[in-house]
Amino acid sequence: MRIARYSLDGQDPSFGIVELAVDEGEHPQTIAAISGDPLAGAVKYTGERHGLDEVRLLAPVIPRSKIVGIGRNYADHARELGNDVPQTPLVFLKPNTSVIGPGDPVIKPVQTNELHYEGELAVVIGRICRQVPRSRVPEVIFGYTVANDVTARDLQRSDGQWTRAKGWDSFCPLGPWIVSHLEPGEAARLHITTTLDGTVRQQGITSQMIHPIDELVSFVSEFTTLLPGDVILTGTPAGVGPMRPGQQVCVEIESIGSLTNPVIDGAADLGFDEAR
Q1: Among the four 30, 31, 68, 207, which has the fewest Cβ within 10 Å?
Q2: What value, to the nearest 5°, has the Cα angle with vertex 233 and ends 229 and 236?
């Protein structure tokens, strides 16, 4: 099942089930509206359907609590930046205000000159849990989506920790929807491709993770309670690099979908004083 969050004609966000076309000539891609929040429990079809081209897809989830990132979880990526491979998962946090959806712009802050893309598989948590054994991790996963862990690489180096480098508004694109039907074994062998203006920059497969999905969820749940809608970013393959205003980055994960965002300059972004 592909669960999307969308807006129709500027109305409040709604949830729907995405029905992909088998033959686009006869069966166009549609979204079937549902009532309620899928993360909160049972939902019902409302009977309404819309073409995907008629709605604006939003970030499929806005975490109420936290986004947990995992750094250097692909050996080639760790080495390309001159870092050692971590023996245990390297954890950081991103605020939920960093989340944007498909088509929303990644805003380059004036404070960075090295804005990087990082295509990743994201795990969406479906229930309250803590200290989850690895064998029971599948029970707490709601689904998977595509993420871009946008990073200000120069700030990451200069700050010595990653909060500012990864926490700016717009630094966590998610989408296009949450896929809930993948088995853990399937999620462990998905191809990830990141393109910049159509040119392939990253290619990897989730089986290359140093610490696999079940280990990551279990490890994170040891020190913090996970809540429905929390997101865990599982790390990025090698090939990270700069993206600049005017460019467009697309992260695609097989069996899930593609997430595309333009990059714009934040120099004209209104601050508090100007916006009052």
Answers
A1: 207
A2: 160
For residue 76, give the H/E element and its range: helix 75-80
Rg of the Cα trace of the chain?
Answer: 18
Q: Note the helical H segments in 115-235.
A: 153-159, 163-167, 184-187, 213-223
Residues 33 and 77 grouped into a single domain: no
Q: Per the domain annotation, does 95 fall within a domain?
A: yes
Q: Tell me what pLDDT residue 225 has.
A: 98
Q: How confident is the model at residue 100 (pLDDT cuts 50, 70, 90)?
A: very high
Task: Identify the band that residue 276 occupies on the pLDDT scale cut at 50, 70 and 90.
Answer: very low
In whole angstroms, give the CA distance from residue 40 to residue 227.
11
Specify whether the CB–CB gap between 150 and 118 falls below 8 A.
Answer: yes
Q: Which domain holds residue 19?
A: 2-58
Place of tokens 């089986």: 207
Q: Where does the pLDDT of residue 226 fall: very low under 50, low under 70, confident under 90, or very high at 90 and above? A: very high
Is residue 114 domain-shared with residue 239, that is, in the same domain? Answer: yes
Domain-embedded: residue 273: no
